[in-house]
TrEMBL record:
Signal peptide: 1-24
DNA repair as UniProt keyword: no
Localization in the cell: Cell outer membrane
Similarity-based family: Belongs to the outer membrane factor (OMF) (TC 1.B.17) family.
One Gene Ontology MF term: efflux transmembrane transporter activity
Chief location bin: membrane
Name the record gives this protein: TolC family protein
Species this chain originates from: Filimonas effusa
Entry coiled-coil feature ranges: 364-391
GO (cellular component) term, any one: efflux pump complex
Entries under Pfam families matching the protein: OEP (PF02321)
Length: 438
């Protein structure tokens, strides 16, 4: 069947205009309600249960610090005992005791302060302060984790939004081709097979469109749950994916200082905590010296028998001698072994963190290269689509070749969007790894 080239050329001109106008403008979603990345992070930080639990952990650790400080002050206790017998405890002994004694009371007060306790008081305070600092680091870790996950969910939604724009643009293209095919078929200028090929391509695209819409709704629901915002199907992310906004990785290599890495800080604190625990254990087998005062009164009611409060200064010394070669010696050995195990584990964790940071840096580097390849691939696919359109308009190629070119163009556009979104997620992960989550 003979085709008319001049009609085809006019059709292809219109297709080019439709395609690139759709790609540039396709709004896809209502612009009435948008949210920025900074607003998303602010909402997530305010809502996060993990951050709230981190604050509770700090408050609990502060209470431990106050409790440890109280050991520096004297311990005071008051004791009172009273007894009433059904018979006399002591029968009358005239003339010394004219009445029997059938009751008895005792009241005493004592204040003791440790002078030396094997360093346990000081060590306990150091350990409590260390645990407070660790609680603060864990709280910061929760904050950084929330920032990372929020950013990743945010860019995932943008990826879906941009992918939707790609589909809409190609849907416009296929709709225009199909309309022209209908006109040409009605005029008897093409075979029905040409029209069916366009319909099959369009059906595949509509299926992908439906899957993408449902995937976006699910991702948006997850995003709203995580940030504590009410779900709104019309909510869209404010940003777009732009290759000009890339931050290339430092050519000098990854930042392996670990000074800002929270996992590294916690592991260092664990080593320090083990050393303090060893000191506490040693303190259990050191002499203990305490001084204090004691005063007491005792007597019997109704007999005129009693004493006055008599203050008494006292001191105590306790030396656990046998523990040094018995059970205590084995406990000290266990503590030393436990401390060494933590030191060994710290060295492993340090190496693993450096490997993880290096891998994350390479991921960012690879992501930038992937974007460059995707841009080049899209340029080639765009040129290929234009050539296919011209060839089809001139009668030099079939509708199958044009549909193949359109599919390659759609795939290249989608791959560029995926590469840009992937870069954003990998860059955020690298910043998290080096302790610079924002």
């Amino acid at each position: 069947m003979q085709r008319r080239p001049y009609i085809k050329k006019e059709i292809m001109k219109r297709l080019v205009i439709v395609l690139f106008t759709a790609l540039a403008a396709a709004p896809t979603y209502s612009q009435q309600k948008t949210i920025s990345l900074s607003e998303s992070k602010k909402a997530a930080l305010a809502y996060s249960k993990a951050i709230k639990n981190g604050a509770l952990g700090i408050e609990s650790a502060q209470a431990d610090v106050l409790a440890a400080k109280s050991a520096y002050y004297p311990s005071v206790q008051v004791v009172g005992v009273g007894a009433q017998g059904f018979k006399d405890f002591i029968s009358p002994i005239p003339p010394l005791l004219t009445q029997g004694i059938d009751n008895f009371y005792f009241t005493g007060a004592q204040a003791m302060e440790p002078v030396y306790a094997g360093g346990k008081v000081r060590t306990s305070n150091e350990l409590a302060a260390l645990q407070l600092e660790a609680s603060r680091v864990r709280a910061q870790q929760s904050t950084d984790s929330v920032l990372l996950l929020t950013e990743q969910k945010y860019w995932n939604l943008i990826n879906l939004q941009e992918q939707y724009k790609v589909i809409i643009a190609n849907e416009h293209l296929l709709d225009t081709v199909l309309k022209q095919q209908n006109d040409l078929l009605a005029s008897g200028l093409i075979a029905r097979n040409d029209q069916l090929k366009v319909k099959v391509q369009r059906s595949k695209l509509l299926l992908n469109k439906s899957k993408l819409e449902n995937g976006r709704k699910l991702a948006l629901l997850d995003f709203c749950f995580y940030t504590g915002m009410p779900y709104d199907s019309l909510l869209i992310m404010e940003d777009t994916l732009n290759a000009s906004q890339l931050m290339l990785p430092d050519p000098a290599g990854p930042d392996l200082t670990l000074s800002a890495n929270t996992n590294y800080s916690l592991m260092k604190m664990q080593v320090s905590g083990e050393k303090l625990q060893t000191k506490l254990t040693k303190g259990d087998y050191m002499p203990t010296v305490s001084v204090g005062v004691n005063a007491a009164v005792a007597g019997s009611v109704g007999n005129g028998i009693g004493s006055k409060f008599m203050p008494l200064a006292l001191g105590t010394v306790s030396v656990p001698i046998s523990d040094w070669w018995g059970k205590g010696k084995q406990k000290l050995k266990q503590r030393a072994l436990s401390e060494q195990a933590v030191v060994n584990r710290f060295e492993d964790v340090e190496n693993q963190l450096k490997v993880g940071i290096t891998k994350s840096w390479y991921d960012v580097s690879d992501a930038t290269k992937q974007i460059a390849f995707a841009i080049e691939n899209l340029a080639q696919a765009t040129e290929n689509l234009k050539v296919s359109q011209d060839n089809y308009a001139s009668g030099l190629s079939s509708i199958t070749e044009l549909m193949d070119a359109q599919a390659l163009y759609q795939e290249a556009s989608s791959e560029l969007v995926t590469a840009l979104a992937g870069y954003r997620n990998k860059a955020a992960a690298y910043q998290f790894m080096i302790g610079k989550a924002q």
